């Protein structure tokens, strides 16, 4: 029995280490010399017409034009689960958000992390950005701000406009203030913001 438990523990440890949430990351470097702009669109998996229709139906029933008590997150979860099964990455991200907060489905942070990991395996930059947020907040994983920045940095390099904006804002300060979480690397920070703006990111436009 002891040998079996040891083998099971060892297998579980190896399995956990192989999960995308535990991937090796480069340490966040706020003083990097340069940044090469990458756009996410060419890397994203294709979306079928039917999957997009289901995704849009989920948006309709959760629209902010509706009163909060009129929004049907349970129905949205059904739409987005079907769309995600057909490869719609945005629907999968939204579905993860529902499990993360327990809207329309039982709260299940492990399920949310697994969905995001699935998107990471498909090289979706937004999934790397979301995994950074999970590590920042300790949602479904151990809270680790260093790993959060590592994921955000990787997401920005891979083309996530959201991550580019977030890191860009952090780097465009006039000087380093680690307690405030800003660094004086304005050249690189502006390059990130310009890259995100070129992808239509409104927050990047505001910052610029």
Architecture overview:
It is a single chain. The protein is 60% helix and 4% strand. With 208 residues, the protein is mainly alpha-helical. A two-stranded antiparallel sheet has the order 1-2. The longest helix has 16 residues, at 2-17. It starts with a helix and ends with a helix.
Indicate the structural class.
mainly alpha
Encode the helix/strand succession as letters: HHHHHHHHEEHH
Shape: globular
The fraction of residues assigned to DSSP E strands is under 5%
The tally of helices reads 10
Beta-strand segment tally? 2
The quaternary organization reads as: single chain
Largest sheet: 2 strands, antiparallel
Radius of gyration: 19 Å
Q: Termini, distance in Å? A: 62 Å
Provide a compact summary of the structure.
By secondary structure, this protein is mainly alpha-helical. It has helices spanning 2-17, 49-61, 73-85, 89-101, 109-121, 125-137, 145-158, 161-171, 186-198, 202-207; strands at 172-177, 182-184. Helix content is 60%, strand content 4%.
Tags for this entry?
208 residues; mainly alpha; two-stranded antiparallel sheet; 10 helices; 60% helix; globular
Fold topology:
Elements: H1 2-17, H2 49-61, H3 73-85, H4 89-101, H5 109-121, H6 125-137, H7 145-158, H8 161-171, E1 172-177, E2 182-184, H9 186-198, H10 202-207
Antiparallel strand pairs: 1-2
Helix pairs in contact: 2-3, 3-4, 4-5, 5-6, 6-7, 7-8, 8-9
């Amino acid at each position: 029995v002891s040998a079996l438990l040891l083998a099971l523990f060892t297998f579980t440890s190896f399995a956990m280490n192989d999960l995308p949430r535990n991937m090796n990351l480069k340490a966040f470097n706020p003083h990097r010399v340069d940044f090469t702009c990458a756009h996410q669109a060419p890397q994203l998996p294709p979306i079928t017409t039917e999957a997009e229709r289901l995704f849009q139906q989920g948006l309709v029933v959760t629209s902010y034009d509706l009163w909060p008590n009129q929004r049907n997150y349970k129905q949205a979860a059904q739409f987005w689960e079907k769309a995600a099964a057909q490869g719609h990455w945005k629907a999968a991200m939204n579905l993860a958000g529902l499990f993360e907060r327990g809207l329309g489905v039982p709260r299940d942070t492990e399920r949310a992390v697994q969905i995001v990991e699935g998107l990471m395996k498909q090289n979706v930059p937004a999934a790397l950005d979301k995994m950074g947020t999970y590590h920042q907040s300790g949602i479904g994983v151990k809270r680790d701000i260093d790993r959060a920045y590592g994921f955000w940095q990787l997401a920005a390099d891979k083309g996530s406009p959201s991550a580019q904006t977030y890191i860009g804002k952090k780097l465009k300060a006039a000087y380093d203030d680690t307690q405030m979480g800003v660094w004086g690397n304005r050249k690189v920070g502006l390059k990130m913001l310009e890259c995100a703006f070129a992808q239509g990111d409104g927050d990047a436009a505001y910052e610029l």
